[in-house]
Structure formats: structure tokens, C-alpha cells
Write a structure and sequence with these properties.
Helices cover 47% and strands 5% of the residues. By secondary structure, the protein is mostly helical. A hairpin with a 2-residue loop joins strand 1 and strand 2.
């Protein structure tokens, strides 16, 4: 006989109520139901709506993949089915497909390219987590090393895919914002834009990257002061009238000679 579970305390109840309110505002994720049918002597898998509103389900699927093409959605579902299928299985678990669909819909792809990238991310994540589990349960060091190495590669790939998605949505541009600019006495702030990728500056040199931002510079010849405005600025090297700094080795020899 199992021991009855304790009732939640007031704090847990309040948290659950807040979570339910937030969840009610989230859009529903599309789900699939799978079945089998025989056609021309072959057993085929069917993927269809889990409810009676087939047309409404199709619209949700189109929206989840950011497309208006039913063929695209059908092909991507087939690829997801193959990518999430385990060894020895004829078809993937519908729960695995629904989990992948939830991730794709949550990413809100705006077009087919973004949808394909997010679909790849779901497969990469699933396989990476599987390899981490194998590595944890491995009894031999060679097996642990093999699974761990593959998991590391997959996790790096996932990070690269996520960065590619962000860059794709930005149109290849990177934005840097300067929230606070402090210019001390003697400095002059200049606000402008920096050249982007593929362009050259005024001296014909290739730019390092795209920074669509406000660039902070100081006027030529102006002293750059720190927080203590009472201190003198560091003198520029090579100016006329400036004495050279003493040679530390000569000073050391003189001190030894004096002893």
C-alpha cells in the first residue's frame, strides 16, 4: 500500500495559480496523431489531427512552420519522423514528434528556412541528450569517452544553429548599444556608425565586422582623463623638451657600486 502524498502548502498553491494564469495566455501547440493504413499491399503510417477539426489543425501546422505550403509541412513531418526514430523502430514515437513540434512552434519561424533550421535543432538536441545519457550509464571508459565526445560535438552544433537562427533573423547584422556614455573634462564624444562586413573604410582596408551602433571616440590630441581629474595626463613619448626616462639597469649598477 502506497503512502499518500502530502498536500501542497499555501506557497505552492499560489505558485501553481500564477503558473496556470500564465499558461492560459500561451498559444496552444499543434499536435499530431499517428495511425497505420494498408495501401497496395503496403502498410503505411498516417499522421493526422488529434481531433475532428482537420482544417483547423492544418492551419495550425502551416503557422507552426511559417509557410503556406502543405507539401512543405508534410515533408518536414516525414523528416522529423525519421530523425527522431530509434533503432529497431519502424516509426518514431508520436510523443517525440509532438515534443519537436512544440519546440518548432515555440520558436515561431517566419519562413521555411527558419523552420528547417529549428527542425534540425530539435533533432540535434534530442540526440545530444541521448548521448549524454549513454555516457552517464557507460561502464567502460572507452564507451564513456565515445558518447561524451559525440555529445560535446552535438552541443556545439546546437549552439552554432542557435546563433545562425539569431543572425538569420537580424539579416546578418549585429547591433551594439551604448547605454551610458561618460566623457570627462577634456574629452569630446563623437557619435557615428562603423563600416559593416564586406565594406572598406576610407583607407581601403577591410572592415572587421558589422557594428550598427554609436561609436565613442575622442578628439585627436585631447587628453584622456581618468576619474581623478586633478592628476596630470601622461605625457606623449617623443615630444621635444621631454627628458628620456632613466635606464633601470644603470641605476641598479650605481646602487651596487655605492655599497
Amino acid at each position: 500500500m502506497s503512502t499518500p502524498r502530502p498536500k501542497p502548502d499555501d506557497r505552492t498553491k499560489a505558485h501553481a495559480a500564477e503558473a496556470a494564469e500564465r499558461n492560459a495566455k500561451r498559444p496552444a501547440r499543434p499536435e499530431i496523431a499517428a495511425g497505420l493504413k494498408t495501401e497496395k499491399g503496403q502498410t503505411l503510417r498516417t499522421i493526422h489531427a488529434p481531433h475532428s477539426d482537420q482544417r483547423g489543425w492544418q492551419e495550425m501546422m502551416l503557422d507552426a512552420f511559417g509557410t503556406t505550403s502543405f507539401d512543405f509541412v508534410s515533408k518536414e513531418l516525414g523528416r522529423l519522423d525519421a530523425a527522431h526514430r530509434n533503432a529497431g523502430e519502424a516509426y518514431s514515437d508520436p510523443q517525440d514528434l509532438n515534443a519537436a513540434l512544440a519546440a518548432i512552434a515555440g520558436a515561431k519561424p517566419e519562413n521555411e528556412l527558419e523552420a528547417m533550421l529549428v527542425a534540425q535543432m530539435t533533432a540535434t538536441h534530442a540526440l545530444a541528450m541521448k548521448q549524454i545519457g549513454h555516457a552517464r550509464r557507460a561502464e567502460h571508459l572507452a564507451q564513456q569517452d565515445s558518447h561524451g565526445s559525440l555529445a560535446t560535438k552535438l552541443l556545439r552544433t546546437f549552439t552554432m544553429q542557435a546563433e545562425a537562427l539569431v543572425k538569420l533573423r537580424r539579416g546578418g547584422e549585429q547591433t551594439v548599444r551604448v547605454e551610458h556614455v561618460h566623457v570627462h573634462s577634456g574629452g569630446q564624444a563623437i557619435v557615428g556608425q562603423v563600416t559593416g562586413i564586406g565594406s572598406e573604410d576610407g583607407r581601403g582596408r577591410q572592415a572587421d565586422g558589422t557594428i550598427d551602433a554609436r561609436a565613442l571616440a575622442f578628439a585627436p590630441g585631447a587628453a584622456v582623463l581618468g576619474e581623478d581629474a586633478g592628476r596630470d595626463a601622461v605625457p606623449e613619448a617623443g615630444c621635444k623638451g621631454q627628458e628620456a626616462l632613466p635606464d633601470a639597469r644603470r641605476s641598479a649598477r650605481k646602487r651596487r657600486a655605492s655599497r
